[in-house]
Amino acid sequence: MTQRPLPGAGLLLTVTGRCPLHCAHCSTSATMASGEPDAARLRSFVGTFTPAAHPSVLMMTGGEPLLRPELVTELAATARAAGTRTALLTGAFFAGRADRPGHPGQVAAVPERIWRAVTAVDHFSVSVDAYHERETGRAPVFALVRRVLDAGVAASFHLVGSGADDPYLADVTADIRRTFGSRVPMLVNSLRRVGRAASWAAADTASPDPERALPCSMAAWPVVAADGTVVACCNQAVVDRRPAPAHLTLGHIGTDDWESISARAVRSPVLRMIRTVGPAHLRHRYGAADEAAPRPGYCDGCRALAERPEVLAAATAAGAGPVGALLDRYAARGQAEAGAVALVRRHGCAPYADLVALHGAAR
Ligand code: SF4
Question: Does the beta carbon of 218 lie inside 6 Å of ligand 1?
């Protein structure tokens, strides 16, 4: 998390868009009919990591990445050979069933091919929330995490609740602390109105103050989407909708290697400015005045920059060259030095931000 604001320090990779679970809040609306990147192209793209040019962190996600366990194992080994540390985010569909809950001390029986993938990565993260619990239950997932820790792999929980006051979050975070002490960090987010939650979750109507610089740290790590397109951020609409806005598109795993993708992410003048002052400030500063129009949300306004050529042209001029590079580095360094807790306070569920900094030792 401390590297999250650093441009090109990490890569988020969709191993598959498919998932066997049916969580009501799924941000990607994943089903077993969803698309997935070609395995050979994924191997080949990760194979372009070299000791001289590689992301520090590769986060494999989905859908459910452990539907392709052999591929996860292989990608983890390839990435590690180049010097990249690997992490995996799963819904743990294999851990158990909510209607057959087991008990917290029970060691999960994990299929061997999946276990090889779980222990091939440096960090194992599992999603736990009220919606996942209806599918997998809590006790089987806790048993799985206990086994992962015993195998020497660091682990963390990704939690989602309706907001800071959600009693579910208070309950599950206390349960995790009781069960694991400070061994397992937690990344706590608030539910967003995307994917399957688009029709029922509360809308985020917050509109940022455009006078203020509000940098977007999420534009720092490239994201490989299920169709192999590489986009500049993890906003789900950018990852899922096609065509992706040109200013947020970095390339495709079928035609580009890591070095060219990371160079585009680092050198794009528009991305530099999004990371430095944020999209709302860019619109306010460089956009043609349109007092009558409602002010868009943070990410909505960023995606809609595709229709504001005057803003993109000004951002390109401001973010190009050594001055743009310096501004970008300065903003990234400031956010990295502020640390993971400050980052989660801004982008996650603020009252639970401290939990991301729990010690997290594997044993
Ligand atoms: S849409 Fe723009 S503001 Fe939102 S996460 Fe992506 S780059 Fe950042």
Answer: yes
Question: In the chain, where are the structural domains located?
Answer: 10-228+340-357
CB of 168 sitting under 6 A from ligand 1: no
Helix (H, G, I), strand (E, B), or coil: what is residue 328? helix
Alpha-carbon span 322 to 331, nearest angstrom: 14
Instruction: Determine contact, residues 270/319, Cβ cutoff 8 Å.
Output: yes
Over the stretch 175-209, which tens digit does the pLDDT of each residue have? 999 999 999 999 999 987 666 666 655 655 566 77
Partners of residue 86 on adjacent β-strands: 58
CA of 219 to the centre of ligand 1 (A): 6
∠ Cα 143 148 150 (to 5°) = 95
Predicted confidence at residue 292, as pLDDT, reads 61
* Residue of 23 and 10 predicted with greater confidence: 10
Q: How confident is the model at residue 296 (pLDDT cuts 50, 70, 90)?
A: confident
Q: Name the residue with higher pLDDT: 72 or 362.
A: 72
- What mean pLDDT is predicted for residues 311-332? 96
Give yes or no for residue 303 CB within 6 A of ligand 1.
yes
What's the CATH class of domain 10-228+340-357?
alpha beta
> Which of 126, 95, 99 is CA-nearest to residue 109?
95
Nearest to 297 by CA among 203, 198, 188: 203
